[in-house]
Amino acid sequence: MSGSLTSGGEMSNTELLQQMALWQWLTSQSEDDRGVLASVTGVRLASELFNRITGQDQINAFKRECIVGIADFLKQNPGATEAQINSEVEKRVVLFAARVQALNQQPLL
After folding, report:
1. CA–CA separation, 44 vs 52, rounded Å?
2. What average pLDDT does range 44-61 have in this prediction?
3. Closest by CA position to 66, among listed 31, 96, 25
4. Spatial separation of the C-alpha atoms in residues 1 and 53, rounded to whole Å
5. Residue bearing the bigger pLDDT, 30 or 109
6. pTM, whole model, 2 decimals?
7. Per-residue CA distances from 76 to 69, 70, 71, 73, 80 (Å)
8. Torsion angle of alpha carbons 34, 22, 40, 15, nearest 10°?
9. 3-15 pLDDT per residue, tens
């Protein structure tokens, strides 16, 4: 949920909800719509803070890199044996685990 754009370039769901609430408040200027905007913004901030504290966004990025790396290996080595594939997968998973472990060693903020 963090960041301005998803990998496809569009807004995330929380960003879209926040923009909708902002637009509604801008067009109405009502206290009810201001309250909705404040609530949606608060949820978005809490979500972003949670993701930063837990490192979940970074973990998801590491997971994607691991999967893409394995897929690239398979594409580049269509005749790889089961042992070669297992070795590559193990190498990638160990790297993923080490990167996640390193995140746990970093300060929270």
Report:
1. 12
2. 87
3. 96
4. 13
5. 30
6. 0.60
7. 11, 10, 9, 5, 9
8. -170
9. 444 556 788 888 8
Q: Give the amino acid at 33.
A: D
Contact 17, 30 (CB under 8 A): no
Nearest to 88 by CA among 65, 75, 69: 69
Q: Helix or strand or coil: residue 88?
A: helix
Q: Which amino acid is at 99?
A: R
Residues in contact with 13: Cβ distance below 8 Å, sequence separation at least 6, in sequence order:
1
The DSSP secondary-structure symbol of 78 reads T
Cα(52)–Cα(106) distance, rounded to whole angstroms? Answer: 12
pLDDT tens-digit series, residues 63-105: 999 999 999 999 999 999 999 999 999 999 999 999 999 987 7
- What does 6-73 look like in DSSP terms, one character per residue? -TTSSPPHHHHHHHHHHHHHHHH--HHHHHHHHHHHHHHHHHHHHHHHHTHHHHHHHHHHHHHHHHHH
